[in-house]
Amino acid sequence: MKQTFLFILCFLTGISASLKAQSSFSESKGAIGITYSGFLGDNDAFHFKSLDGAGGYYGKGYYSLGITYIHPISKSIDIETGISYSRYKYQFSNASLGPDAPEPYEVKNAVIDIPVTVRWNFLKYFFLNGGLLLGIDTGKENHLDSQTGIGETVK
After folding, report:
1. How does pLDDT run across 38-68, given as a tens digit for each residue?
2. Phi and psi (nearest 5°) for 45?
3. Phi, psi (5° rounding) for residue 27?
4. Rounded (5°) CA angle 153-127-12
């Protein structure tokens, strides 16, 4: 019950703060923000090929911390960039090896993301954000597919 109350309080505070910030933002020269996520989410490992008979990865949590900068171009268009660090934990197990299989163990993966996006503000409190995302896999373990690359993002 206490956790539910804290979640609702944080959610409503976040909504009211972001609505206030966006309503007066178009008059400023830019804004810097700090982002954090991880206590409400879940993570999974996705593979491009079928893994019949292989071990499995099970998400055990993650967190992400970053900083963003938003620069207004016009009343409704902004450029947004920043950098974020994310750390993911997985549990690897391989039951297909039978009774002599090793015990399940934890695998960690860290990724640095650098987005460059265009943000379109509309209807006073809403926005659509899309652009490029550079992801850099900083982990040295090769348990998962490489997370390094250039992609696109839409929020």
Report:
1. 766 677 666 566 666 666 777 788 889 999 9
2. -100, 130
3. -90, -5
4. 105
> Which strand (E) or helix (H) includes residue 118?
strand 105-122
Residue 1: what residue type?
M
Cα 6 from Cα 10, distance rounded (Å):
6
Name the token pair of 132.
């490029």
- Using CB atoms within 10 A of its CB, is residue 133 exposed (0-12), middle (13-18) or buried (19+)? middle
Q: What distance, in Å, lies between the first and last C-alpha atoms of the chain?
A: 31
* pLDDT at residue number 20: 42
DSSP-based three-state secondary structure for 30 = coil
Instruction: Quote the tokens at residue 1.
Output: 């019950």
In this structure, are residues 112 and 136 in contact, taking their beta carbons and an 8 Å threshold?
A: yes
Return the CATH number of the domain spanning residue range 2-154.
2.40.160
Report how far Cα 76 is from the mean position of its chain's Cα atoms. 25
Residues 88-107: tens digit of each pLDDT: 888 877 766 667 767 777 88
User: Which residues contact residue 24 at a Cβ distance below 8 angstroms, ignoring those fewer than 6 apart?
Assistant: none
Instruction: Calculate the CA 153 to chain-centre distance.
Output: 11
Q: 154: closest CA among 122, 126, 127, 135?
A: 127
Rounded to whole angstroms, the Cα distance separating 102 from 90 reads 16
